[in-house]
Design brief:
By secondary structure, the chain is mainly α. It contains 18 helices and no strands. The chain has helices at about 10-25, 25-45, 50-65, 70-75, 80-95, 100-105, 110-135, 140-150, 155-165, 165-190, 200-210, 215-220, 225-240, 240-255, 275-285, 290-315, 320-325, 325-350.
Length: about 350
């Protein structure tokens, strides 16, 4: 997969901005992210149909454009918000590995595993190809393809870490994938009867086609506990595909930058540390040594960390800039949405 290189202009001013950010304290931005998470959690408690992660992205975008907040967001809060979008995202992804019940996933059978792998591959490659054809700039095609094929904003954050994607590309991709995943909560239940899907089949379709885990739960629960159980297991299967996909992107970046060292004098790691941590967490969960209380704590911590990270990413969205490619990005999002829903539906019918 070819990753685009960007020319850097205004190197002097860029250096000054980087130095200024690095010497600034992250606490104002981290405090703002914490406040955003608290509001998102409160909204989720009041309206359970609104996932906390989705609310966090929306609140981050709002904070970046409110007249009394935007100067703070773009100024003294920026170092902490950027830190949340990067570092907290990595920790949250590691903890996401503890949600993988590998034994439960494998119980679904190899036919379902093959179906999910096919859906992920077809959606990723198809979306990436369509994004390039539409001429979307930067890494947006790569990031949108990742978000639609794996697990939404979490996958975008993971791939952006190894691809070195521009913060605005990441933020706009997260916003688009979050929007489409939220719409799925309302649209997919209306299609169950016309498509002739039983409750378990509907759950598998939702798990294979909806992006974020919270959105999967919100969509599948409309068809009852049987659908919800199937949806979560299939979704966890897709989450398991995150590690090989990120590793593939990392190898691509490493090959493109062969011989190039980082600022610390080291070559980029072939597999990022947080991906190794994700896999280690999944293996630890599979051993059964962790008590339910510890898993529950880890799940809560993962939700809070990812919510803070997504608030930070949302705060980097600049709507006037996003509007320049908004039409093409929306077209890609619609095409990817139809693609993943269609391929998943075919896969469910083939594995009945």
């Amino acid at each position: 997969m070819a990753l685009l290189n960007r020319p850097v202009s205004g190197a002097g001013s860029l250096t000054r901005r980087v130095v200024s950010r690095e010497t600034s304290t992250p606490w104002p931005g981290l405090g703002l992210a914490g406040a955003g998470v608290l509001v998102a959690w409160s909204l989720h408690r009041l309206v359970p149909g609104v996932p906390m992660l989705t609310a966090s992205v929306v609140l981050g975008i709002a904070a970046a454009h409110l007249p009394r907040l935007r100067s703070f967001v773009r100024g003294s809060a920026r170092p902490g918000l950027s830190l949340a979008g990067r570092r907290l995202m990595r920790i949250g992804i590691v903890l996401l590995g503890l949600a993988l019940g590998l034994d439960q996933v494998l119980r679904l059978g190899w036919a379902t595993v093959a179906m999910v792998a096919g859906v992920v591959a077809a959606t990723f490659l198809g979306t990436l190809w369509l994004g390039r054809r539409l001429g979307l700039p930067g890494d947006q095609p790569l990031l949108i393809a990742t978000g639609y094929s794996i697990c939404g904003a979490s996958a975008i954050g993971a791939v952006s870490e190894v691809s070195g994607s521009d913060e605005e590309d990441v933020a706009s991709s997260v916003a688009l994938v979050t929007l489409c995943g939220t719409l799925a909560i309302a649209v997919l239940p209306l299609l169950q009867a016309p498509l002739g899907l039983s409750d378990p089949e509907f759950g598998r379709w939702v798990g294979a086609s909806v992006h974020d885990v919270g959105q999967v739960v919100a969509t599948a629960q409309t068809a009852g506990p049987g659908a919800l159980g199937e949806a979560v297991l299939v979704k966890l299967m897709r989450v398991a595909m995150l590690a090989p996909l990120v590793a593939a992107v990392a190898f691509s970046v490493r090959a493109r930058r062969r011989g190039v060292r980082t600022a610390s004098g080291r070559r980029p790691a072939p597999v990022p540390l947080f991906v190794a941590g994700f896999l280690a967490a999944a293996v630890l969960r599979a051993t059964g040594v962790l008590p339910d209380a510890a898993l529950e704590w880890a799940h809560t911590a993962q939700e809070l960390l990812l919510a803070a990270a997504l608030f930070g990413l949302g705060s980097a969205v600049h709507l006037p800039t996003l509007s320049r490619t908004g039409g093409r990005a929306a077209l890609l999002g619609l095409g990817a949405w139809i693609m993943v829903a269609g391929v998943s539906y075919a896969g469910v019918l083939l594995t009945v």
